[in-house]
Amino acid sequence: MVEPNRGQRPLPYPRASALAASIGLLAALAGPAVAVEPASVLEASRKLVPTGPWPAGDEKGMGNLIGAGTQLRCGWHLSQPKAKAYELSQVRSNTMPKSPFTGPYTTQYKPTSVLPGTAHAFNSEKYAADAEPAQQGTQIDAIGHFAYLDKPWDGQGAPPLDGARYYGGFTQQQVKPTPDSPLLKLGMEKAPPMITTAVLLDAKAAVGKGQSLKGGDLITAAHIQQMLKAQGLARRGILPGDVVLIHTGWGDQWKDPGGDSNPYYTQGPGLSYDAAQYLGRSRIVAIGLDVPFIDPVAEGFLQGKAAPAAGTPAGLPFAVHHHMLTQMGIHHLENVRTAEAAADRVWTSCTMILPLRTAGAAGSAIRPVAIGVPGQR
C-alpha cells in the first residue's frame, strides 16, 4: 500500500503583488488566438505555482496548487478575443440518469405561495427524503469521499473501520468518528475555488478512432501521451495545477429522460491504474470524464460478473478512486459534459469549478465551465 503524504512543511501562498504583476503581463500578451499559452506566460506561471511539500495535517491536497500561477494561465485564455464559454455540466432533472449507489434523486416542486398582507408571490422546491444531490449529476468528490483498509474485508461481521485511513494518514476517528457524523476532515468545504487551466483530451478520436469508447475500455498513460502529441500539446504537456478532462464519447449515453433501460450507469470506460499514476505525478488538481465512475467498469462488473480492469491492484477494484483521492489528494469530476468543447477542439481553456461549501460533505453538485478559443489545432 502506498503511504499518503504527511509531515510536510507549509508553502507560502503567492501575494497580491504577484497577481497584480500577472495582470500587467496579460495585458501585454493578449494577441492572436492560439491553442497554447505563450512560453512567457507558462514560465511566469511556473515561478508562481507552489511546489510543496504541504504541511502536516493538510486537507487541500493538490488544491494547494491553485493560486496566482494558475490564475495567470487562466487569465491569458480569458483575454483572447475569440474565447467562448462552454457548459461542462449536465442539466439536472428528475428524469436524468441516476447513480445506483445513492438514494433516490427527486425534486419536489412546491405550490406558488403568497405572503399575507403583501403583493408578493414566490416559488420554491425541495428534495425528497433520502435524496443525495451531491452524488448525482455532474458532481465533484471531496478528498474524504474514499478511505482504504490494510487488507480487503471478508464481509464477515462489522467492517474494520477503526483501521481505515484517508489522505494524509487521517484515521476514521479523525474523519468520521460516528456513523452519522459529517466529515470532520477532508470535507467539501476544504476544497478551494478551482480557477485554473484545463486540458481536454479526445479519447474518442485517438483511442476509439472516432468511435465512442465502450464499457470497460481503458485509457492508459500511453494513450494520454499519444493524445497530447496528436492535439499539439506535447511540448506544453500537463502542468501542475491543471484540470484534465477526457472526452470518451460515453456521455452520448446520457439521455434525459433516461429510463430503466438506459445503459449510462451500468458500465463505462475509464482510466487505467497506470494512467492514474501518470496524472498523479503530473500534479493535477482534478480529473474529469464524461462517465459516471472515472474507474473503468465493464458490463456486469457492478453485479460481480466481470473482473476489474487489467493492472488493477488486488482488493482495490476502484483503484483510480483510491489512488487519486486517498494517495494524491486529487478531486474527481464525474458526468462531465465534454462533447461540445471536444467538437470545437477547445484543447486548452480556463476552467472554473466552484463546489458548494457544505460542511462535512463527501461531494457536491457543480456547474463547471471552460472558457477557451474554439478551432485549436
Main attributes?
single chain; 377 residues; Glucose Oxidase, domain 1; 20% helix; 15 strands; disordered N terminus; alpha/beta
What spatial form do the alpha-carbon principal axes imply? globular
Q: How far do the termini sit from each other?
A: 41 Å
CATH topology name? Glucose Oxidase, domain 1
Number of helices: 9
> What is the assigned CATH homologous superfamily?
Putative cyclase
Round the Cα radius of gyration to an integer and report it. Answer: 21 Å
Structural class: alpha/beta
Hey, roughly how much beta strand do the residues contain? Answer: 5-15%
Walk me through what this model shows.
- The chain is α/β, with parallel strands linked by helices and 377 residues long.
- The protein contains nine helices and 15 strands.
- Strand 11, helix 8 and strand 12 form a beta-alpha-beta unit.
- The chain starts with 15 loop residues before the first helix and ends in a 5-residue tail after the last strand.
Compile the SSE list and pairings:
Elements: H1 16-29, H2 39-48, H3 68-78, E1 84-87, E2 107-109, E3 113-114, E4 121-122, E5 125-127, E6 139-141, H4 172-175, E7 194-202, H5 203-206, E8 218-219, H6 221-230, E9 243-247, E10 270-271, H7 273-281, E11 286-289, H8 319-328, E12 331-334, H9 339-343, E13 348-353, E14 363-365, E15 369-372
Parallel strand pairs: 7-9, 8-10, 9-11, 11-12
Antiparallel strand pairs: 1-15, 2-5, 3-4, 6-12, 6-14, 7-13, 13-15
Helix pairs in contact: 1-3, 2-3, 6-7, 7-8
